Structure formats: C-alpha cells, structure tokens
Amino acid sequence: MSSKHQPYFVPAQSSWPIVGAIALFLIAVGAGITVQNMAEGGDGSVFGKLILLSGFLFLLYMFAGWFSNIITESMSGQYSAQLSRSFRQGMSWFIFSEIMFFGAFFGALFYARMISVPWLGGASNNAMTNEVIWPTFEAMWPLIITPGGETTTAMPWQGIPLINTIILLTSSITLHLAHTSLEKNKRMALIVWLEVTIVLACFFLYYQGVEYAHAYQDLGLTLQSGVYGNTFFLLTGFHGMHVLLGTTFLIILLARVAKDHFTPKNHFAFQAGSWYWHFVDVVWLCLFVFVYVL
Fold first, then answer.
1. For 10, 23, 119, 268, which has the most beta carbons within 10 A of its beta carbon?
2. Is 0.90 topped by the overall pTM?
3. Which residues of 19-57 are buried (b: 16+ CB within 10 A; e: fewer)?
4. For 125-156, what is each residue's pLDDT tens digit?
C-alpha cells in the first residue's frame, strides 16, 4: 500500500529574497567603508554610514513584508504538517549555519592565542625568528601592545560583562517560562514573561553600548588595537547584532501573541524564536569565558 501524503503548499514567486540580498550587500559595503574610514583615523565616512543605514532599512522592509506573507499564509490554513516539519528543519539548519559562523571567529581567536602568539614569542624552536621579527615581543594574552608600539587595556570580565551575562541567562529563563505558559494556555503569564524577556534584551544592548563607549574613551581599546582589539570587537559586535535581531524577533512574537496567533499545539514561530534566543545566550557564555575571563 502506498503511503498517503498531505498536500504541500508551494508559495507563489516572491521578490523578498532579492530584496534581502540587496539589503545584505548594502550593509556589507556600508560597514566596510565606515570601518575603513575609522581605521584611518576618521569618525566614519558619512557616505558609508548612509549606505549602511539604507541597508538596514531595506532589511527591515524585507522582514516586515516576508513575515507578513508567511503569517497570512499560516493563519489562512494553507500549511500542512509536512510543511511544518520543513520549517523546523529550516530553522535547525539556520542555527547550525550560525554555529559555523561563530565557530570561524572563535577559531581565529584560538589560532591567535594558541599558535600565533606563542610562535612570535619563540616557541617551537622559533627563537631566531622571534629575534628578527619582534625582539621585544612577550607571548601573553590579551596582547595589549600592538606592533606599532601602541598600548591598550584589556576589558575586564567584572562589571558590565558580568552584568550582561546575568541579564542574558535570566532572559533565557523568562523566555522558557513564557513558552511554558503558552503550552499551558496561560495568556497573561505568557505576555508578562515575554515582555520581561524583551526588556532584559534591551538592557543588554544598552549596556553593550556603554561598554563600547568605555572601551574607546577610557581604555583605548579600539579596532586599531591589534589582534586583541580586532577579535574582541568582531566577536562581541556580531553577537550584539544577533541579540538585536533576536530582540526584533521577540517583539514580533509579542505582537502576534496580542493578536492570538498562537495556540498550545500550534506555535512553531514562538518555538523558533526561543531556539534562536537560547542559541544567542549560549554563544554569549562562550564569549564571556574565552574573550573576557581567560
């Protein structure tokens, strides 16, 4: 007997993927121009900032339009159980790709710390190269002295980084409580816990901005601060962008909860948002340990 399959909904052709590609292109170009100008001693190219802003606006436009289409299709009952499984697989692969993304940056950090820095310090019978390339080099991490002789200060793990760690861990708990409330059909508790999670996410972003201002103004820790400054801002900056994206995701979920889009048995969008937020929290724990503490 042949297996019985459910009808599989195939959406019409959409322009949103190309809009998203244009947005990402503008963001990459704008960020590159801005960072290049800052690295040369400027405060960021106005032209680069405009391109960066236009890229983000295009991205928001794409998200709003695409999410609206998907929500309309879902609420109209066009999605089957097979398509729901496809959504779960898609979200799982997306998070896996994000793991590989951060894995590349953590790999660069480990390579610099465990291989490059000891090698420059004369490890592995490399004393002669050490004397020729950088005689006064001290193999230590964080590397707070650049090849040009500029000195910076490492960001301590106490203070804002520790506060942000507590904030993110707490937000994972509150989001889990919101998810549990949804499964138990406790609407008021769901709304309260989700709102608390969003507030905590906003506090995290605020404190990270304060941390960056402190790094630039008080510690002399900038993108020009050698490999330590580069890895610090790349890892924490990209994580901050993911927190911003996750916060936007949570706000959209709150709006959908207000419109009664979810039921205890049908709420994959909420579940996907939870997966993403918990992933962001795990990445921050790795950052806190390997960037700030060790």
1. 23
2. no
3. bbeebeebbeebbebbbebbeeeeeebeebbebbebbee
4. 666 666 677 767 777 788 877 766 677 888 88
